[in-house]
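Ticket #4471: complex job returned nothing on first submit. Input attached below:
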Amino acid sequence: GDSVTQMEGPVTLSEEAFLTINCTYTATGYPSLFWYVQYPGEGLQLLLKATKADDKGSNKGFEATYRKETTSFHLEKGSVQVSDSAVYFCALSFLNYGGYNKLIFGAGTRLAVHP
Amino acid sequence: GAVVSQHPSRVICKSGTSVKIECRSLDFQATTMFWYRQFPKQSLMLMATSNEGSKATYEQGVEKDKFLINHASLTLSTLTVTSAHPEDSSFYICSATRPKETQYFGPGTRLLVL
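Support reply: We reran it on our side without changes. The output follows.
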């Protein structure tokens, strides 16, 4: 079945370090890919998305490129801040009959950034 | 982006009572709403998909008589945890969407059953 695999956390970095969180997927067909972020005690916020191969999603300094050949959607940021500390979820979705997207989430990766 | 609210944000109840959680799309009409459950330090587990005006579709292993979902309007869905027990304690998150659009998530409701 369709699934998403993320690198295990926690990831601990110093401020201004480079961030990579790996995400790979298994899917029949061509899904859309997403990164969501969850701050402590809150719901999920969409961080970025890509809907087709070679698309690059970007937001708030974060980037991820949809790589069909490696079935990957790794999240990167050149210089992290303490405020980036959160849990990051990679997800995929397909359009169903009703036109809505059923999301399949990875396990989540906790990021802790220290001053 | 679109705004989705949940109420209450936290609720504590006694074992055996029922708890209702509301999910509202504040600035758009949501034809579909989803209900998720999240255990501490774990990912989100989809419980059910709710389309306005029709019965919810539950995921395998989710008791539909335990978790009652009503989607009576295009801006409101409710999840009622009936006869709650301590093992129902969790973080419940809803999301709302329209066809071919991204899901927009609510801030979550933390339920503690004593």
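The longest strand of chain A covers residues 86-95. Closing as resolved unless it happens again.
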